[in-house]
Amino acid sequence: MQPILSVNGVSKTYASGHQALKTVDLEIAKGEIFALLGPNGAGKTTLISIICGIVTPSSGTILVDGYDAVAEPRQARMKIGLVPQELSVDMFETVQATTRYSRRLFGRGSDHDYVDQVLKDLSLYDKRNAKVMELSGGMKRRVLIAKALAHEPDILFLDEPTAGVDVSLRRDMWKLVHKLRDKGTTIILTTHYIEEAEEMADRVGVINKGELLLVERKAELMKKLGKREMDIALVEPMAAIPADLGEWHLALEDEGTRLRYTFDAQAERTGIPSLLRKLSDLGIQFKDLDTSKSSLEDIFVDLVAEREAVA
To answer: What is the SS3 assignment for 220?
Structure first.
């Protein structure tokens, strides 16, 4: 399938010499939800700004549904809706007026029915005649999304869409993103909330210090890099881990009442049977076993730490 977005060899170095973005290659399929995950200052916003034509790349090409974002900026930008991190909207306009104006900015003819439907989808229709300044922070963010969708883009960029909003609104936003995808919109979001990427994305890209470390399907990423943990609840507290258990690299937690063993679930041998036999040989009794898989946050922290160690 032809990608709706293709980024090839894109980098950004400012006049000061600061390299905000190292060479990036990335393809996004039509209709997918792609999460660009990384800490603040990792290069997420720089990459989005380049794709959207706000920042000029130092090298590389960007094709947006076949249009060159540098050579054909108007055609490429028509395909894109951008919801920025910062609130950037006329506070004295009504919700309906500012959304209709955004549509006209892209040369689209008036279509009040379409704009009204967007407002309904975003639970803004009842507030259509209210001035933006009268809305709550969460509602203002919804207005930004309405403005971004007003010209019927094929790709919607959400730059830290739930930064600073409460948990309830964050989950509402997640539902909205899935609804938009169901209508055929390609969603690309940046976030430093691990749970956001884990909840919404089909694929995850991990970026740190301007370098795209990897791009992988979420399930495959967790399968390949995710570890499992086994907690062993002991009958009697333990002051220290015996030397005979050294090969399993256990951690002693909860004031000596619990042993934690981290293992690779995909490995041919997990080490669990031999560990349990060794515990029995040493007369160490346990009353419960519990295993859990690592989260995307665990994977992200391990991956970044690994790369920094190599550097």
So the answer is: helix
Q: Running along the chain, 311 residues long, what does each successive block of 10 average in pLDDT? A: 90 93 95 87 90 93 94 92 78 92 89 92 91 88 89 90 70 81 90 76 89 85 72 91 91 90 76 90 90 67 67 59
Count helices and strands in the chain by DSSP H and E runs: 10, 14
Question: Residue 285 corresponds to which tokens in the numbers above?
Answer: 């009794």
Provide the 8-state DSSP code for 125. G
**HEC readout, 273-308:** HHHHHHHHHCCCCEEEEEEEECCHHHHHHHHHHHHH
Please name the fold of domain 5-223. Rossmann fold (3.40.50)
Q: For domain 227-293, which CATH number applies: 3.40.50, 1.10.1760, 3.10.590, 3.30.70?
A: 3.30.70
Rounded CA gap, 225 and 114, in Å?
44
CB 68 within 8 A of CB 81: no
pTM here? 0.73
196: nearest Cα among 162, 166, 148, 164: 162
How far, in Å, CA of 37 to CA of 193, rounded? Answer: 8
- DSSP H/E element including 21: strand 19-28
> Pick from 268, 270, 249, 271: which is nearest to 260 by CA?
249
